[in-house]
Design goal:
This protein has 347 residues and is an alpha+beta fold. It folds into 3 domains: 97 residues; 140 residues, Lipocalin, CATH 2.40.128; 71 residues. 34% of the residues lie in helices and 24% in strands. The strands form 2 sheets. Strands 1, 2, 3, 4, 5, 6, 7, 8, 9 and 12 form a 10-stranded antiparallel sheet that branches. Strand 2 and strand 3 form a beta hairpin. Helix 7 packs across helix 11. It is elongated, with a radius of gyration of 26 Å.
Length: 347
């Protein structure tokens, strides 16, 4: 190995190590030294040796100290020692780490129970998942337990539990939270949702955006909504979850036949229709445009507000609102882009 390559390798090791051990940029090497002393089966490492190990100005790395740190903090030593990738080590350290620190807000930590749709865009079944956000000594971890329900050739549902892990980061400028979750099998989910400053209670509800590969043959990216709850939702209330996963815009459309069906199935929808018929009927053709904001603002019917929201969720769950989008480009668009859009105009 040439000297320049050796130095690049050591720089990559130190950057990964600092990023994983001190994700918010606040170093506490003395604490690491104490933890190594307290860890059974490890020899103590001099403090000066640890300082040199974490210093990105040093062009040497003590292997014994590195192994001790990895074993003490349960870090993936194979990843830390892997060859440097061009331009891959720049994004998550320094300025980026300050702009996107690890989430540490205790109001957002704990076990949450969520839903999104199956990644198969041809099916409309709900998938449950648990999301645990847990603070450790130096970082916060995110663990998703995904409860899949694939169907075999005999149309029998097979249990399919998968574990994905990641780190929750806070986008301080935009006040959003994002989590990239993966596992060794190649499963992938990216969750993105708003962060509100909670003062009097912990997080109990949040909706957001989930991105994952679709299960169609091309595995094109699939974008959909997800919802989180602090407490589990019972099976008899799942009909409301469909409305929470529909398009979040305040106006949606429902076919007349579907509205009549829901009126027959749910008395709360029938009462809702009778109370707001004057709003729904004036411009109806074959579908009813329902504006949630207008409905809630115009409530003079005497209906309880929770009944109105329940009816809106049932209606939205049965609406023609978009639930998932598969970003799979048509070949025809690629050909047009190549042969027309990117060619100079004829003179």
């Amino acid at each position: 190995m040439m000297e320049a390559e050796r130095i690049d390798q050591i720089k990559a090791i130190k950057k990964r190590l600092n990023r994983l051990v001190f994700p918010d940029g606040e170093t506490n090497i003395s604490r690491i030294c104490e933890l190594i002393k307290q860890t059974e089966g490890l020899y103590s490492v001099p403090l000066n040796t640890l300082y040199r190990l974490f210093s990105e100005q040093e062009t040497a790395a003590d292997l014994c100290a590195l192994v001790a740190v990895c074993r003490c903090l349960d870090l993936d030593i194979a990843y830390i020692l892997s060859p440097p990738e061009p331009n891959a080590e720049k994004g998550a350290s320094g300025t980026a780490a300050k702009k996107f620190p690890v989430l540490r807000d205790p109001r957002y930590l704990g076990m949450f129970h969520g839903f999104f749709y199956t990644p198969n865009p041809e099916r409309d079944e709900l998938i449950r998942f648990d999301l645990e956000l847990k603070k450790t000594t130096y970082t916060t971890t995110a663990t998703m337990t995904y409860y899949g329900k694939p169907v075999d050739v005999y149309q029998q549902v097979m249990p399919d539990v998968r574990i994905l892990q990641g780190t929750p980061y806070l986008d301080e400028f935009h006040s959003n939270i994002h989590i990239e979750l993966t596992n060794e099998a190649g499963d992938y989910y990216f969750l993105y949702f708003t962060r509100q400053r909670l003062r009097s209670h912990d997080l109990y509800f949040r909706r957001g955006i989930a991105i994952t590969p679709s299960s169609v043959s091309t595995n094109a990216p699939l974008l959909q909504n997800f919802v989180l709850f602090a407490r589990e939702v019972s099976d008899d209330k799942l009909s409301f979850v469909h409305g929470l996963l529909a398009d979040v815009s305040p106006e949606f459309y429902i076919e007349k036949a579907k509205l009549r069906q829901l009126c027959e199935e749910y008395p709360v929808v029938q009462r809702f229709y009778q109370s707001f018929e004057h709003i729904l009927e004036h411009d109806v053709v074959s579908v009813y445009p329902i504006n949630e904001e207008a409905i809630l603002a115009a409530n003079q019917s005497g209906l309880d507000r929770s009944d109105i929201v329940a009816a809106l969720l049932l209606l939205k769950g049965g609406s023609i609102a978009t639930r998932r989008q598969v970003f799979d480009d048509l070949d025809a668009y690629g050909t047009f882009s190549k042969n027309v859009l990117q060619q100079p105009n004829e003179i």
